[in-house]
Amino acid sequence: MALDRPVPNDLSAFWMPFTANRQFKKAPRMFVGADRMHYTTADGRQVLDGTAGLWCCNAGHNRPRIVEAIQKQAAELDYAPAFQMGHPKAFELATKVRDLAPEPFEHVFYTNSGSESVETALKLAIAYHRAKGQGERTRLIGRERGYHGVNFGGISVGGIVNNRKMFGTLLGGVDHLPHTHLTENAFTRGQPEHGAHLAEELERIVGLHGAETVAAVIVEPMAGSTGVLMPPKGYLERLREICTKHGILLIFDEVITGFGRLGSSFAAAHFNVMPDIITCAKGLTNGVIPMGAVLTTGPVHDAFMQGPEHMIELFHGYTYSGNPIASAAGLATLETYAEDGLFERAAGLADYWEDALHSLKDHPHVIDIRNMGLIGAIELEPMAGEPTKRAFSAFLEAYEKNILIRTTGDIIALSPPLIIEKEDIDTLIGTLGDVLKGLH
Ligand SMILES: Cc1ncc(COP(=O)(O)O)c(C=O)c1O
Q: The pTM is what?
């Protein structure tokens, strides 16, 4: 632990999110710069970014096109009212996102984060049914171990216990599918063989409540924050079939999987399973400026386009929906992805990534390894009576060894920028191997 880092004198005022505040403030880990694959720490070290920030900097850091677009936009039009007024770049970006998304997606509603995208999607689903004359369809179905951000709708449909238990009764009318993480799938490369049958639970839940009361099912097509859980083969397809059969909207939360993480624009395209609504954020602006979006099919959007034309069709939106600087950042981000061919690059590197990750199989404490595209997880055996401690120690030690990893529970999650080179993969995995060997 280096104590000589130049850090602000007073760290007490900033109550840090999802952070062990007391531990951090005793031994701060401060980044002061970033370029492409590396962060610079306050004590001048270069740290290899194994997590694309927080699963968001898919094009790496300090990309000139994005930096310049933000600078130019700030000087040209800093802000325009989001309600009843427009500016060109928000429309241009929506068109580009639509063109990138699989075919049924035709409309883009802007938010400022993944959490807001989720709230928007859930509200849209309920309002859609009401607009179609089925106002009794208000139930929402999420999944155990799902992460859908931190707002009330998101934690209600989400299934991470610590994110829910402090916050009261949450939304009513919510039920959960079982998670799809089965020990018999340990060390599977890509999609696991076992678990498609878990989608049948949706039939049970729908039967319990009555299909006519259910508005939507929301899942992450590949669950990221809960520890990188791949959908079993056939599982998403079956969810789609059951939703269609019962007139229930299917929402894919693609806040992590959107914009190339799996080697395709969106997971919907990757798995060739089309939901009715997609949420995204993070990679939309390369994480540089907060922005999220909700993509809908034509029929979902069109259900709202009724009544007198001078009337607002949807009473929902944010002061910063489609903010000009965020829109400029989004456009430059999508140009950067295309220019560098980053989605194809992620797909091309996936096998190398997979082999590198699975080379850690026989390291101490490793009980599972999972991967797809440029995402992966190494699950550790928890320390007896002290869950999360082993992985957190790995995180701290990795940082001292100049690699940034992320941990959730006792799972190490990796999701590097899609610009990563093979040598960087070797460094990341080689260093992580050393860390694992030194763990108690
Ligand atoms: C699937 C998913 N949904 C929603 C969110 C919340 O996004 P944000 O932190 O931008 O609110 C995240 C964040 O990691 C996520 O992974």
A: 0.97
